[in-house]
Every structure is written in structure tokens, then in C-alpha cells.
Design goal:
Blueprint lengths: L2 H13 L22 H12 L16 H10 L3
Helix pairs in contact: 1-2, 1-3
């Protein structure tokens, strides 16, 4: 499974919706994520990709779309 497919799988679990958002679609504006779901999504990403996300990175802008999540994981070496 590639990185994007894994992220979509995690997003579906956190949002509890069977969705496939566009790469640049805002996950917050679409209602798939909110400030309460963000920590859950970040925890899922940490576990799935073996990364540590510092509290200073818990910014919705960094996790606003599939493309941004992929960019973030790439910047963390994953």
C-alpha cells in the first residue's frame, strides 16, 4: 500500500466515513477533520509511519489536505 492510500485509510478510520478526498481538498473545511479529531489523526500517523510529531507541529495547516500530510511525512523522512 502506498503512502497516500495508507493516509486515506487512516483518515477514513478517524472520520468514520468512507471517503476519498482530492489531494488538495481541505480536510477541515470539508468537515472530515476538526480540532478534536486532529490529535487522533496525528496519533494514527505516528503509529502507521513510525514518526514523532512534536506538539509544536500540531497545527491544522500542516494536516489540512492529503498533499500536505504527505509533504509533512516526507519532511520527517517517511
Amino acid at each position: 500500500m502506498d503512502k497516500r492510500a495508507r493516509i486515506i485509510e487512516l483518515l477514513r478510520a478517524v472520520a468514520n466515513k468512507d471517503i476519498t478526498p482530492e489531494p488538495d481538498e481541505s480536510l477541515f473545511e470539508s468537515g472530515l477533520l476538526d480540532s478534536f479529531a486532529l490529535p487522533e489523526m496525528v496519533t494514527a500517523l505516528e503509529q502507521a509511519f513510525s514518526v514523532q510529531v512534536p506538539d509544536s507541529d500540531l497545527n491544522p495547516r500542516k494536516f489540512d489536505s492529503l498533499a500536505r500530510i504527505e509533504e509533512y511525512l516526507t519532511s520527517r523522512g517517511k
